[in-house]
Amino acid sequence: MRFFSEEKVSEVRDRSSIVEVISDYVNLKKAGRNFRGLCPFHSEKTPSFMVNEEKQIFHCFGCGAGGDVFSFLMKVNQISFPEAVEELARRYGVSLPLQTASPSQTKEAARREALFQINELASNYFQEILTRRREGEPARQYLAQRGIREQTIDEFHLGYAVDRWDGLLQYLRKRGASLSMASELGLLIPKGKESWFDAFRGRVMFPIRNLQGRIVGFGGRAIGTGHPKYLNSPDSSLYHKGEILYGLREAKTFLRQSDQVMIVEGYFDLLMLHQSGLRQSVATLGTALTARHLRLLRRYTERMVLVFDGDAAGQQASLRLLPLFLEEGLWPKVVLLPEGEDPDGFLRKGHLEDFKRRIAEGPLLMDFFLDRLAKIHPVKSVEGRAKCADEALAMIQRIPDVIQRDFYLKALAERLELEVSLLRNRIGRGLKGRLRMETGAQGPLSQRYDSRAEETVVRLMTQDPRWVGRVLEERIIDEFESPSLQQIARAMEEVYRRRGDLPLSEVMAGLEETLQEKLRRIIFKEVVFEEGIEEKILEDCVQKIRERRLKRDKSELRKRIREAEKETGGEVPEALLAEHQALARREALLRKSGP
Ligand SMILES: [Zn+2]
Fold first, then answer.
1. For 170-176, what is the mean pLDDT?
2. What pTM, to 2 d.p., does this model score?
3. Which of 92, 117, 144 is the last residue before a domain boundary?
């Protein structure tokens, strides 16, 4: 693994902006001194994910995830620490010492690069045929007839694979590319030893790019009688269908601008939407939408619109997705097209305004689902109503948000003319389980004693290092009651004594994970102290901590005196009496300095 010096890591951290980096993944809004958004690490409806630019940390109050800019990148991209450092160094122009990767790492990286280059070569070949060769004529005609403009062909790098067994094969061989690698990518198909043939023949080719713009796979649409109609690259080490959306790279800035994303199923649907100016669109690639897709999209927007075919199959396809959306806490709309229309054909016929109206008026997928249930089951009959209720409840149970769940319970009760309590009872068991989970997250009861004063002292220390000096002068850390707050304060003391300053990353590095989390929670608590009042607050806290400590010491001493009396038959040892007197002096002093 690569190793960087502490200085280099600090330099990269200092040059980076955590808000800027996280904004690539989370829609952040300013909230007081912090930024707030929906956590990318757990599914939630109300934002509990906080980022602090000044302290360069993030924290999620929902799932407890948190850390600095490196830990964010590591977690969100599943990469190692050195990779996160490298990514940020590249982004913020910090030069790193030369790569000294292990031989196996270098080999793996070189292999991936070679695979990408083969895809790139193949794409160039397909594109050249479509745009410049006579053999491309049938595909050019086909695309023109489907209303695809030249500009779109360029922008999406469309191509054509001729109807031959060795077109791409010859092209790659001439350029010295590894044919077995091309076969691994699904571009060639092996036939016996050391021999291959083209996988894509007689097809319009759609290169599929990842967010970095590199080609990970291809989709091919047969233009003749080829079977199947659509052929896609198989999953490979570069390509995972459940994580890639066609057109996302081209659409991502438009998703943010319009705060909306349209999800379609086909390549041509996507190109047509894009061409019609609805550039905030992406397509799934012949596979169902996955939770990973949704998490990827919600980095840009939460407002999702499903645009499927206007037939029974299209409606079924969108309804099948409802549980997935509900579990992710998302409420997509659905666009209903006239029977027999698909998005591509409908727009090609020039119904853009009609289409936009249908987007605006589209119902929530959940409402669409409830409407359809009522149509399928005759709600006039008792049996029909029971069936309808059970199917709807099975769906409503998946809604993670308590308030929204209750809203739909009431809506369902109204539709079916049933008592809402009856419906609640019917899913009572499931709901009870969930409620217990939610209260379980409040923290152990043993932590319930009031540690607000100690917490405030810690918060003041994080806000300005000069308070650390004051706190050390007062020697108040020794009197803390909470062991975890004491450990945190001691870690800050240690760094401060060593550095004369309080770089948070160093404090964090010296703490175990649960204490790091506790410290982040304290920092993110929105308590705004009035200007100039900190001194007074610190004094009050110190006073309170001392009083509580005195109380603890007194009750402790009383206990010891009682025990001694029992043992000696009424006599109190000299040492304990002296302690008692010392305590009384402490108390008198405290009273004097107190309010
Ligand atoms: Zn979270």
1. 96
2. 0.60
3. 92
Do 385 and 260 share a structural domain? Answer: no
Distance CA 379, CA 166 (A): 61
Domain count, the chain: 5
Centre of ligand 1 to C-alpha 298, Å, is: 14
Q: How far is the CA of 66 from the centre of ligand 1 (A)?
A: 8
User: What percent of the chain has a predicted confidence (pLDDT) above 70?
Assistant: 93
**CA–CA gap between residue 353 and residue 340 (Å, rounded):** 19
399 alpha carbon – ligand 1 mean position (Å): 17
Please give the order of strands across the beta sheet that includes 34-37: 29-31, 34-37, 49-52, 57-60, 66-67
Q: What 3-state class would DSSP assign to 57?
A: strand
Q: Cα-flanking dihedrals φ and ψ of residue 231, to 5°? A: -125, 130
| Pick from 109, 31, 26, 14: nearest CA to 70 | 14
Q: How far is the CA of 430 from the centre of ligand 1 (A)?
A: 23
> Coil, strand or helix: which one is 222?
strand
Ligand 1 centre distance from Cα of residue 458 (Å): 24
What's the CA-to-centroid distance between 284 and ligand 1, angstroms?
26
On the CB side of 397, CA atoms within 13 Å amount to 18
List beta partners, residue 180: none
Work out the angle between the directed axes of helices 452-463 and 465-474 (0-180°, nearest 10): 130
> What tokens appear for 573 in the block?
């040892």
Residue-level pLDDT at 325: 92
Mean pLDDT, the chain, rounded, equals 86
Give distance in angstroms: CA of 429 to centre of ligand 1: 26
Verify that 213 and 257 share a domain, yes or no: no
HSE toward the beta carbon, residue 199, CA cutoff 13 A:
22
Q: What is the model's pLDDT at position 356?
A: 95
